């Protein structure tokens, strides 16, 4: 949500679409499945605006009719830290490992998407594993085998996303 609210209208040069379009198209199938209902509400509203050909920016959220959405936007936009200009101006010591955050939103967005997808796939893995166990206990070997094949594919997907995100997945 932070990226959607903060950078939703910024254009991604390599894709020639906005951050909002990229994010919402990528997670479109998950719009009704957010753990945080407020985030889900905002994502669905932004998606509806894009489909209707309307735009949204930070001001849209800050001035939102819902106080809950406006407060969240203000919280997400108010950064608790800032980079001191003295590091560069006085000491000639700019950021060493990455560009300033306002110029780094493309990488930030891709990493956030990977973390979002990883959590979704992990939830799917846990749900499917419960199905495997239920089928095993009931003696339904055909269903158990089907769920085990699904589990294998889910694990592969989870591992691909984790590798891309640089995350180590520990199986319980």
Give the helix/strand class.
mainly alpha
Q: What's the overall average pLDDT, rounded?
A: 84
Strand runs, count: 2
Strand content: under 5%
Describe this structure in words.
With about 170 residues, the protein is an all-alpha fold. It starts with a helix and ends in a 7-residue tail after the last helix. The protein contains eight helices and two strands. α2 (about 20-25) packs across α3 and α7 (about 105-140) packs antiparallel against α8. The mean pLDDT is about 85. It is elongated and about 65 Å long. It has two domains: about 1-80, no CATH class; about 105-170, no CATH class. About 65% of the residues lie in helices and about 0% in strands. A two-stranded antiparallel sheet has the order 1-2.
Essential attributes:
single chain; 172 residues; 2 domains; 63% helix; elongated
Question: Summary?
Answer:
This protein is an all-alpha fold and 172 residues long.
Explain the layout of strands and helices.
Elements: H1 2-7, E1 11-12, E2 17-18, H2 19-26, H3 37-51, H4 58-62, H5 67-77, H6 85-89, H7 105-138, H8 141-165
Antiparallel strand pairs: 1-2
Helix pairs in contact: 2-3, 7-8
